[in-house]
UniProtKB/TrEMBL annotation:
Source organism of this protein record: Thalassococcus profundi
GO cellular component: cytosol
Family the entry assigns: Belongs to the MnmG family. TrmFO subfamily.
Endpoints of the signal sequence: none
Gene: trmFO
Protein name (Swiss-Prot/TrEMBL): Methylenetetrahydrofolate--tRNA-(uracil-5-)-methyltransferase TrmFO
Length: 454
């Protein structure tokens, strides 16, 4: 075996991919443009630099999906999660780290690995030959971004997220909400009931607009700019254009009949649309927002039916670079039009340090196995890694695909487990127990295969 694996980007995903592939015996070249080419967000040339929060979020592997990802990465000898634990700071149940020593250690460990060579240069093309992983994250350089756009299509790469909040279905009060498409459009019953509707009377609508206009908003970071398109305006920007704007936009009440009160005409209606194939997650249609997270929860819970809403993801608009992965990537995270190229990390449409590292872990192992001529066992969908990669490569709705954190709404339901809020603790424990079992089996099968190949 002489073929090298080239990885572009030394963030969480690229660093983890390099570590995993190198540990499997593959020669890796890790390409990082910093410090020669700088970004407005990075401060150093270190690999694995944390540019935003210093938290890897919950470390609870029994009741939290991101904590389960931590557990799975530790079981797979993950560089990022192990280094995070080495530089852990007190943070309750969260895994927060001392960011500078963390990045320094990630850099030192990668440099010390016999199978890894680091090249400090900017890559601006998608090479036609060799095995490559693109893990350049939300700050992909202009040159490489243009090359990706040229290969995938001009509409395939987004430079600003227009993210609407996503709600867990089992936290919605269906005694107030109902399922119906406008004017009952659709040839099948499923299509005619594709939207979940939350009605507002005039008093509730006026109070909602007041709260929306008064809510705390997040400002763009220095160096960011955003030109809003009319098709994806933040709801607070629409409200600022006039109090009736939302009623004639995403909250228009036409073509809908409330079965709970069929004789009452709603003044406005908030619609939610299923966000995944399982029907466990619903996004609030047209509700992309720059409200701060605390304000979002307060304002959105004013919507009838969402008083007790639990959010898989809150909304926002910020600079990002991500693919429409359900359309462009195969189950092996390869670009369908150029399968020698894999993508990993935030550019695939995941959000957060942990999720980015997890996608790097998978991409590194998948690419190394292909180079070594090994067939990895099928990735278990019931693991946290499997649920997340299944979502971005096919489980999500391609037309409305937006970046996603890992959450239990991505997991296949368990049989015989109580639904709703009261059954949540047992349900989450069931998810994590099942995931740990299938992930352990998946890793064990690879160790057996590797031993047989020696």
């Amino acid at each position: 075996m002489t073929q090298e694996l080239h990885i572009v980007g030394g963030g969480m995903a690229g660093s983890e991919a390099a570590w995993q592939a190198a540990n499997m015996g593959v020669q890796v070249v890790l390409h990082e443009m910093r410090p020669k080419v700088k970004t407005f967000a990075h401060q150093t040339g270190n690999l694995g630099e944390m540019v935003c929060s210093n938290s890897f979020r919950s470390d609870d592997s029994e009741q939290n999906a991101v904590g389960l990802l931590h557990w799975e990465m530790r079981a797979a000898d993950g560089l990022i999660i192990d280094t995070a634990h080495r530089h852990r700071l007190p943070a309750g149940g969260a895994l927060a780290v001392d960011r500078e020593p963390f990045a320094e250690t990630v850099t030192a460990r990668l440099k010390a690995h016999a199978n890894i060579r680091i090249s400090y240069e900017e890559i601006t093309d998608l090479p036609a030959d060799g095995q490559w992983i693109i893990a350049t994250g939300p700050l992909t350089s202009q040159g490489l971004g243009a090359a990706i756009q040229a290969r995938t299509g001009s509409d395939a790469l987004a430079f600003f997220d227009a993210i609407a909040p996503i709600v867990y279905y089992d936290s919605i009060d269906m005694s107030k909400a109902w399922m119906q498409s406008r004017y009952d459009k659709g040839e099948t019953e499923e299509e005619q009931r594709a939207y979940l509707n939350c009605p507002m009377d005039k008093e509730t609508y006026e109070a909602f607009i007041d709260a929306l206009l008064a809510a705390d908003k997040t400002e763009f970071h220095e160096g960011e700019t955003a030109g809003y398109f009319d098709g994806c305006l933040p709801i607070e920007v629409m409200a600022e254009r006039g109090r009736e704007t939302l009623r004639h936009g995403p909250m228009k009440p036409v073509g809908l009949t409330n079965p709970h009160q069929p004789d009452v005409k709603a003044h406005a209606v908030v619609q939610l649309r299923r966000d995944n194939a399982l029907g466990t997650l619903f996004n609030i249609v047209g509700f992309q927002t720059k409200m701060k997270y605390g304000a979002q929860k307060e304002v959105l819970r004013m919507i009838p039916g969402l008083e007790n809403a639990q959010f898989a993801r809150l909304g926002g608009i910020h600079r990002n670079t991500f693919l429409n992965s359900p359309t462009l990537l195969d189950a092996q995270m390869r670009l369908k039009s150029q399968p020698n190229i894999r993508f990993a990390g935030q550019i695939t449409g995941v959000e957060g340090y942990v999720e980015s590292a997890a996608m790097g872990l998978l991409a590194g192992r998948l690419a190394a196995a292909e180079i070594l001529g090994r067939d990895l066992p099928p990735l278990p969908q019931d693991s946290a890694h499997g649920a997340l990669v299944h979502h971005i490569t096919g489980g999500a709705e391609a037309k409305t695909f937006q970046p996603m954190n890992v959450n239990f709404g991505l997991f296949r339901p368990l049989d015989g487990v109580r639904g709703g809020r009261r059954g949540r603790k047992d349900r989450y424990r069931g998810y994590t127990d099942r995931a740990k079992e299938v992930w352990t089996d998946w890793l064990a099968a690879q160790r057996v295969d590797a031993a047989a190949a020696e």
